[in-house]
Every structure is written in structure tokens, then in C-alpha cells.
Amino acid sequence: MMRERALVAVVDDDESVREALPDLVRELGHEAEAYSSAEDFLASSRIDQTRCLVLDIAMPGMTGLDLQRVLTARGKNIPIVFITAHGDETVRRHLKERGAVDCLVKPFSDTALQEAINEALNPK
Q1: How many other C-beta atoms lie within 10 A of the C-beta of residue 43?
Q2: What pLDDT, on the 0 to 100 scale, is given for residue 40?
Q3: Exposure pattern of 9-42 as b/e (b: 16+ CB <10 Å)?
Q4: What is the pLDDT of residues 89-100, one digit of tens each?
Q5: What is the pTM of this model?
Q6: Phi, then psi, of 2 in degrees rounded to 5
Q7: Which residues pair with 7 in a beta bridge?
Q8: What share of residues in the chain are helix, strand, coil (percent, to 5)?
């Protein structure tokens, strides 16, 4: 019996990330969908199927943090792995305190992403 592949949504305004990450997520055995903005993700029909969100912090318009707030306000408790090009340990700690699974600083390794997604899908 094949286990159901979890849907991991990648939300990033950087096209190269939107092209590379979903491929990696699929290689890790999950289903992947990419969105170019938080607004696109909110407008999608797949929010309720999403089991993990790989979310860029800094995006034009609605930021990753704004999206986290909106989802929380709507009662959508989707585990979030934040990704950022400008993070440091303070940012990471702050995000984890606010409920993020992790915050990975670009460029991050495939292994780091795999571990963060696994943690999101199988919380301890």
C-alpha cells in the first residue's frame, strides 16, 4: 500500500526557487505546488490539502509573516518552514517562537530542507 503523498506548497517570489524547490520536494517523495506570492496561495483551492508550507519571508506585497498571521486567523494550522536570504539566528529563533517548524537561510542544503519537511509532517 502506498502512503498518500503529502502536499507541500512552496511560496516564493523568486522564480529560480519556484522551479528548483518543487522538484526537490517531489524527489523527497511528496507532492509539490509552487506559488509566486502569498496572495496566490491564499487564492488557491489547495490550502486545505496543504500539509506543509515552504515559505519565503520577504516578498513584495504580503510577506511570509503576513501569510502566517492570516492563516492563523483563519484557523489553518499548516506547519511552516520559512526560507530567507537574509536570516540570522535571531530571526530564526523569533520565527520558531511564533510557531514555525524552522527557518532555513538560502542557500540551504537538500538535507536541511528534507529534515525540516519531515519535522513538519511528523511532529514529535
Answers
A1: 10
A2: 98
A3: bbbbbbeebbeebbebbeebebbbbbbbbbbebb
A4: 898 899 999 999
A5: 0.94
A6: -85, 135
A7: 31, 50
A8: 45, 20, 35
